[in-house]
Design brief:
The chain has 374 residues and is an alpha/beta fold. The chain has one domain: TIM Barrel. Helices cover 36% and strands 16% of the residues.
């Protein structure tokens, strides 16, 4: 296989990493007013330097800040958009694991006026990451669809946006402005965490979307494709834009199930995306048949290594799964990663740092044995 000169790489990762105890304690102290924001930043940057070294030493060619700059994969970013606030949850769903299920109400955001970008959101965080790594720095941000999916039409102020097309246009512009500033700062690799396309594979969540939000689950994939395309279309040619699909992951619990078949054609052919990080660590994600829609020039990163529990997969099992996937998409267009981040928000960790390192090492070593070069 030819060596990949740009991401996604043969061995890659989703983004969030386990936060060290010192950072968790500093965040607690900052929330309690015991230390200043500058003191928290000093601890945060020290932790990022350390986790960058870990990723580089493991052989990863794409490096993240572990999402150490935030408490949640989604909320910290989206609340920086003008006129976005926390809202009341619109529906209840079950979070499952091997022991059973518990009911939760996912966080919902609301739009209370015209959305805009009063200031850069994660640009300074990227600049710091870039300054401390010799590999390719990756920025992960929530997909713009996240601002709509859990609240629907009723979570968007009707006075500000009597026409939802205007809302989508403004939201796409906010993202385009942020991506342009990231590009100007030297960013060549972004990832949109697009959980909602995976949620739309679940029959029960599709029913709730229609019953509770009044949205058409068959129409939303194209709506979100247009929104994402507006957000990323202006990126420079040297910037790779990938998408991560996930069915929920907190404390080893998951929210949705169902194969990718309901969204596959739109996912692969309507989104102007270069690569897809796809959850495939257990039977909830269905088979690899939807990969038959993958067009030339795009990459699927197979999320075969689970972050929901610490037990380590075997190389032989991973290779068999890669062989299965290669029946539906060319091996040259495939890569390997964990199925999700290791810590998408504060709390709920399912393993320790040594297990995390073992998982990432397994990804790198398996990729080298399958493709020759990571």
């Amino acid at each position: 296989m030819s060596q990949r000169t740009k991401p996604p790489f043969r061995a890659d990762q989703v983004g969030s990493l386990l936060r060290p105890t010192a950072l968790l304690e500093a965040r607690r102290q900052a929330a309690a007013g015991e230390i200043s924001p500058d003191e928290l930043m000093a601890v945060q940057q020290a932790a990022i330097r350390d986790v960058v070294r870990v990723q580089e030493d493991l052989g990863l060619r794409s490096v993240t800040d572990g999402e150490f700059n935030r408490e949640s994969w989604q909320v910290d970013f989206l609340l920086k958009i003008a006129n976005v606030a926390m809202g009341e949850p619109r529906f209840t769903t079950a979070f499952h694991n091997e022991q059973g299920a518990e009911e939760r109400k996912p966080a919902t955001l609301k739009v209370v006026g015209k959305v805009s970008r009063p200031a850069p959101m994660f640009v300074d965080d990227f600049k710091f990451l870039k300054s401390v790594t010799r590999e390719t720095p990756k920025v992960t941000i929530p997909s713009p669809s996240v601002l709509h999916f859990r609240g629907g039409r009723d979570a968007v102020d009707r006075t500000a946006y009597p026409d939802m097309n205007d809302f989508y246009a403004d939201l796409g512009r906010v993202y385009a402005e942020e991506i342009a500033d990231l590009a100007a700062a030297g960013c060549t690799y972004i990832q949109l965490d697009e959980v909602n396309m995976a949620y739309l594979c679940d029959p029960e969540l599709r029913r709730q979307v229609q019953a509770n939000l009044g949205e058409d689950p068959d129409a939303l994939p194209m709506t979100y494709a247009r929104l994402v395309n507006d957000a990323i279309r202006g990126r420079p040619k040297d910037m790779v834009a990938c998408m991560h699909l996930c069915r929920g992951n907190f404390g080893g619990r998951w929210m949705a199930e169902g194969g990718y078949e309901p969204v596959a054609e739109v996912l692969f052919n309507e989104f102007e995306i270069d690569g897809y990080f796809m959850e495939y660590d257990d039977q909830r994600s269905g088979g690899f048949e939807p990969l038959r829609f993958l067009p030339k020039g795009k990459t699927v990163v197979l999320g075969l290594v689970t972050t929901k529990r610490g037990v380590l997969e075997t190389k032989d099992a991973l290779k068999r799964r890669i062989d299965e996937a290669a029946k539906f998409a060319p091996l040259e267009q495939l890569a390997l990663s964990p199925q999700c981040g290791f810590a998408s928000r504060l709390g709920g960790d399912t393993m320790d740092l040594e297990h995390e390192k073992a998982k990432l090492t397994l990804v790198v070593e398996t990729a080298r044995e399958v493709w020759g070069l990571a």
